[in-house]
């Protein structure tokens, strides 16, 4: 943070007055009180700017710090600017971020694999090979009606052939498999969408505590 030129001039004048009077130079706490700073970091950066400009020389740190006017060749370098304090991430946030990452990893299973697993599970419930049909009962012979002028012969209707039954079962099986594949693809797409949303939330959570 760059300080105003007025504050730099006031600080330099104060140091000169202290040195002329033979008094100790101002401490960080005294500087904060005079300029209304919230932290001693601001006081140190104010001194550092004066040192960088060659107005003062700073030797030592803390209670042993000594300040002289001007820049001496063998002096210790000016006080370095203190890096901003980074708040530690809360443990609960770390656990939540790890859980989100785990959910994202689980949701990253390829759609093709999800479809294959669901189709295989469904196929276990369907028998593609129809059971052998029971032997057909013998067809009844023609039953003669009572002999009269309106008499006629009645024939029994033959049941469907084995080939027809197999064809019907095959069509039913194919329809069930197709339905299963469509449902599995839909579930895979939903899982991928959820994974994408989870990644976005994880990135937002990390950004908040970066």
Description of the structure:
The protein has 210 residues and is mainly α. 54% of the residues lie in helices and 4% in strands. It has a two-stranded antiparallel sheet. Helix 1 (5-20) packs across helix 3 and helix 5 (111-123) runs antiparallel to helix 6 (162-208). The longest helix is centred in the C-terminal third of the chain and has 47 residues, at 162-208. The chain is rod-shaped and about 140 Å long. Mean pLDDT is 75; it is low at 74-84.
List the helices and strands and how they pair.
Blueprint: H1 5-20, H2 28-35, H3 40-52, E1 56-59, E2 66-69, H4 91-106, H5 111-123, H6 162-208
Antiparallel strand pairs: 1-2
């Amino acid at each position: 943070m760059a300080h105003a030129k007025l504050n730099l001039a006031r600080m330099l004048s104060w140091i000169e007055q202290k040195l002329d009077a033979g008094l100790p130079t101002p401490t960080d706490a005294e500087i904060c009180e005079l300029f209304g700073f919230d932290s001693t970091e601001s006081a140190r950066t104010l001194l550092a700017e004066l040192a960088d400009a060659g107005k003062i020389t700073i030797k030592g740190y803390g209670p042993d710090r000594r300040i002289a006017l001007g820049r001496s060749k063998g002096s210790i370098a000016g006080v370095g600017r203190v890096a901003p304090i980074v708040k530690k991430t809360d443990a609960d946030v770390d656990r939540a971020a790890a859980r989100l990452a785990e959910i994202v990893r689980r949701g990253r299973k390829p759609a093709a694999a999800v479809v294959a697993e669901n189709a295989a599970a469904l196929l276990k419930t369907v028998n593609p090979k129809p059971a052998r049909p029971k032997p057909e009962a013998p067809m009844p012979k023609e039953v003669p009606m009572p002999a009269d002028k309106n008499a006629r012969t009645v024939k029994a209707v033959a049941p469907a052939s084995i080939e027809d039954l197999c064809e019907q079962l095959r069509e039913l099986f194919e329809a069930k498999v197709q339905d299963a594949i469509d449902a599995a693809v839909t579930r895979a797409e939903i899982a991928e969408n959820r994974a994408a949303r989870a990644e976005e939330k994880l990135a937002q959570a990390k950004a908040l505590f970066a």
